[in-house]
Each structure stands twice: as C-alpha cells, then as structure tokens.
Amino acid sequence: MAQLFFTQQLARFTSVPQVETDASSLRAGLDAAFAVNPRLRGYILDDQGALRANVTIFIDGRRCRDTQRLDDPLLPGSQVYVLQALSGG
Fold it and tell me: Under 8 Å CB-to-CB from 47, ≥6 apart: which residues?
C-alpha cells in the first residue's frame, strides 16, 4: 500500500493523518486522505482542484509532474510526502 505523509506545518491548522491506501494515482491517494479529514482538502487543493501554489508533493523522492490533474501513478510501496512552503523572514 502507498503511504501518504503530511508535514507538521499543516497540523497547525487541521489534523494531518498518515494514510495508507491502495490508490493507483496521486489524486485517488489524496482523496483517501480527504475522506479521513475533509478540511485538509482546502489546505492542499485550490477551488479548481489543482495543487495550491504553496504546496509541493514528492512521490518516492520525485516531485509530482502535473499539479493540475495530479495523475502521477502510485505503486504499492510508494511514499508520498505533502509539504507546505514556509514563508517569513
């Protein structure tokens, strides 16, 4: 099963579950996480369903390719890290 991990920066705003899923695409994997915590969707995706500009996702050490469709494949042992950019000075 693929595993999705969310950085602790998101935990300031909502619960960030660690999710194991048999999803075969990134979007389906994210949907599994949103089923656990629906509020998480608004922090990860914009109102068009695309990845927010301040969020980056790595799948098995590689940045996701399409931030609009989120159709990158997930393998049974994939590790997905969802990171929110930090700002400030």
Answer: none
Alpha-helix residue ranges (DSSP H) falling in 1-89: 26-36, 40-44
Looking up residue 20, the CATH number of its domain turns out to be: 3.10.20.30
Cβ contacts of 66 within 8 Å, gap of 6 or more:
72
Residue 29 in tokens: 């994997």
Per-residue model confidence as pLDDT tens digits over 43-62: 999 999 999 999 999 999 99
The reported pTM is 0.89
Quick check: 8 and 81 in contact, CB under 8 A? no
Overall domain count for the chain: 1
What strands, in cross-sheet order, belong to the sheet with 62-63? Answer: 19-21, 2-6, 79-84, 55-59, 62-63
